[in-house]
Amino acid sequence: MSGRQRIATKQVKIDRVFHALGDPTRRAMVERMSQGPVSVSTLAGPLAITLAAVVQHLKILEASGLVRTEKLGRVRTCSIEAAGLSVAEQWISDRRASWERRFGRLGVLLAEEDRG
Amino acid sequence: MSGRQRIATKQVKIDRVFHALGDPTRRAMVERMSQGPVSVSTLAGPLAITLAAVVQHLKILEASGLVRTEKLGRVRTCSIEAAGLSVAEQWISDRRASWERRFGRLGVLLAEEDRG
DNA sequence: AGGATAGTTAAGCGTGTACTAAACAAATTA
DNA sequence: TAATTTGTTTAGTACACGCTTAACTATCCT
Fold first, then answer.
1. How far apart are the C-alpha atoms of B50 and A102, rounded to whole Å?
2. Smallest CA–CA separation between B73 and chain A, in Å?
3. What is the CB neighbour count within 10 angstroms for residue B43?
């Protein structure tokens, strides 16, 4: 017995999103795309890996919902899907909220002390 | 020849942060911790994996800077390091800013059209 | 002291991941 | 039509990852 664990099985998407962002090459691709739509080979340009590898990363990014692509003629244009980043951003900000709510109560106590 | 690729080699931390958050078990641990400090075994409680596995995840979370731990007597207490989440949050919001700056220009044009 | 509790470390196992090379398909250009 | 450009698919490889078991250490309790 071995392999990945499943946990709750509700949020399939958030799992893919964070996993996709966990790779430096994919983050570099997202960074490039956030400056505007690009073709696959333009994306591959600075990346020091084969086009095939880029295409594979692209599939993962698309499956996660972080990226949208469209093919016209022989060139595929890749762009950011804003909603994808939001999923990750939301998760983080939820944790922070939860954290700060607790910390906030302590903060009040410290402030009281401060004022004497 | 194979294996991971290195890219820019500046941001060592952000790589660890996103990688750490890419695992559902580790996110579950972070969620638990964001509600307050916990011991290792409390953390392990609902997780359906061995304590040993939890300790391994914990090391990754600590190395990423997302989590801080302290041992007192025989119990190790684990809590969130707010700055860790900020690193991820910042990266995302930077991408979004870059994205929205572009999209904003288009947005203006659309708004103009809208007003006739 | 003896036993229980809390955590740690190391070795090993199966799967997933990131990559490559190579062969392919389909538009575009000469 | 032939060559080029742009992308896609498949098979294979090496290493990373998540997990377990087992043996161990250290603290706390009786």
1. 29
2. 25
3. 21
Helix (H) or strand (E) holding B44: helix B40-44
Specify the pLDDT at position B100: 84
Q: Does residue B99 belong to the interface with chain A, where contact is any CB pair within 8 Å?
A: yes
| DSSP 8-state secondary structure symbol assigned to residue B35 | T
pTM of the model: 0.82
CB B80 within 8 A of CB B66: yes
Q: Which residues of A touch B49 (CB under 8 A)?
A: 5
> Is a pLDDT exceeding 50 seen at residue A62?
yes
How distant is the Cα of A26 from the closest Cα of chain B, in angstroms? 11
Mean pLDDT to the nearest integer, B89-110: 78
Task: Provide the 10 A C-beta neighbour count for residue A17.
Answer: 25
Q: What is the distance between the alpha carbons of residues A98 and A68, in angstroms, rounded to a whole number?
A: 32
Interface contacts (A, B; CB < 8 Å): 92
Residue B31 has pLDDT above 60, yes or no: yes
